[in-house]
Specification:
By secondary structure, this protein is an alpha/beta fold. It has 16 helices and 19 strands. The strands form four sheets. The protein has a nine-stranded mixed beta sheet with strand order 16-15-14-8-13-12-9-18-19. Helix 6 runs parallel beside helix 7.
């Protein structure tokens, strides 16, 4: 049986809200993984695909007491998998609020569709739990502001799942270290290749699959019928309809996501913004150089409700501090190209290439350069960093403030595409300049009955 003292230890450490700081390396994880009484207790909300991925990566460091999912089939499958993996059973719930009511859970991992992130994260922190939330953290810019207020108010630790900051053989950390060491001179341009998306045929409304609580899945989003075609998705995320407004394909609908801009963009724009030193500010202007929407739009909203509506192709130029262009494109290789006055290099999850990288053989980076980027010894994985921060009561490497700043670029890009025009942004006031219609897209109302419980 888990010792109650461990829960009291976490609560005691988290009580000094005013003193909470940013990530600093600790030895917390190395102790926690070896001692059952030191291991934090987690729960996961949203279990399909990425939910299980972050859970399974975390069992080395934490015990999982509970799962929640609105699909009974997904919930049952993951309850089976956690017992097979750890030898311990977890409680399963269709309503995540039952997890928040428990006082034996230290942290909640959130891997729901994007439109649920903010509600679950805010309510989890208000219930006294730390939060690890998949990216993108929010569906709107106003949601980001709310989460920042709640983190500050509660003193909870909140890690965003932009794991490129920690993992992928530290290639992205090495990229930033190269830039900081002047290996490409002054940055002149950054290009983020994030891939495009596909359009869909007309998707009919059909009966909700057995086991899925469709009303709960929609949650804060507008009430609409469940839609799907018979063809099934294969590969990653497989076993569900290829064309649907639910499992996996929700990423193609603005009602639940931000398309590729907020999916892969949340990874690569994050690293680009960090490298530019712009993670405390933002762009001054967003220009949609070109884009293709799969359906007709009017006043920034799709005119049909039975087809995917997020962009299939795009090129966005964000004017970053110093008027450095940050290009976000659906074309070319997935990854980030940094171009400077002295050279250029490319980095993605599988490689880092270019002459500045080749030159490392004769002129290595200074000792500790990668660790300086990270702010201390690089953690074993993103969850390890999160638990270190929980023990130390600091904010982790993917903190909500830097994440929201970079994600504002992605949100603004989507607004510019939806309205088909350039936007001027005030990063200090965090509002669009001289465009009331565009500013109306900074937030969204929640469906009645699914408002955030403050």
């Amino acid at each position: 049986m888990r010792q109650p003292l461990n829960r009291r230890r976490f609560l005691k450490q988290s009580s000094a809200v005013a003193g909470i700081g940013f990530f600093g390396s600790t030895m917390g994880v190395s102790r926690a993984q070896d001692s059952p009484n030191e291991r934090p207790v987690f729960a996961t909300v949203g279990l399909r695909n990425q939910g299980w991925t972050i859970t399974s990566k975390s069992t080395k460091f934490a015990d999982f007491a509970a799962f929640a999912d609105v699909d009974a089939n997904v919930l049952g499958d993951n309850l089976r998998k956690i017992k097979e993996r750890t030898g311990k059973e977890a409680e399963g719930y269709g309503d995540y609020r039952k997890i928040l009511d428990r006082d034996d859970i230290d942290a909640v991992m959130i891997a729901t569709p994007d439109h649920w992130h903010t509600k679950v994260a805010v309510e989890a922190m208000l219930s006294g739990k730390d939060v690890y939330c998949e990216k993108p953290l929010t569906l709107t810019i106003d949601e980001g502001k709310l989460i920042e207020k709640v983190v500050k108010k509660t003193g909870r630790v909140c890690q965003v799942g932009t794991m490129q900051r920690t993992e992928n053989s530290q290639r992205f950390l090495q990229a930033i270290a190269l830039i900081r060491d002047g290996r490409i001179g002054e940055i002149q341009k950054v290009t983020c290749g994030i891939g495009g998306a596909t359009a869909s045929p007309v998707i009919p409304a059909i009966d909700v699959p057995e086991g899925l609580d469709w009303d709960q899945w929609l949650g804060p989003a507008p009430q609409v019928p469940y839609r799907a075609l018979p063809e099934m998705r294969t590969g990653y995320g497989g076993g569900v309809p290829l064309y649907t407004n639910c499992h996996y394909a929700w990423r193609n609908w603005y009602e639940y996501s931000g398309g590729q801009m907020n999916d892969w963009g949340a990874h690569h724009v994050d690293i680009a913004t960090w490298a530019l030193g712009a993670d405390k500010t933002g762009p001054s202007k967003i220009t949609p150089s070109s884009f293709s929407l799969p359906v007709e739009y009017k006043n920034g909203n799709p005119t049909v409700a039975d087809q995917y509506n997020s962009p299939t192709k795009f090129e966005i130029v964000a004017n970053m501090p110093g008027d450095i262009p940050l290009v976000i494109t659906s074309e070319g290789d997935n990854g980030i190209l940094f171009e400077g006055t002295k050279g250029r290099f490319f980095v993605n999850r599988g490689k880092i290439t270019g002459k500045p990288v080749e030159d490392l053989a004769q002129k290595p980076l200074p000792e500790g350069a990668v660790e300086d980027v990270y702010g201390g010894p690089v953690s074993e994985n993103h969850t390890a960093n999160f638990i270190d921060a929980m023990v130390a009561r600091t904010q982790p490497i993917s903190d909500v403030w830097s994440h929201n700043r970079m994600l504002e670029t992605c949100h603004l890009a989507n607004i510019a595409i939806r309205l088909g025009r350039e936007l001027k942004w005030d990063p200090s006031r965090r509002e669009i300049i001289g465009d009331p219609e565009a500013n109306s897209f900074l937030g969204r109302e929640s469906r009645k009955g699914y408002e955030i419980e403050m």
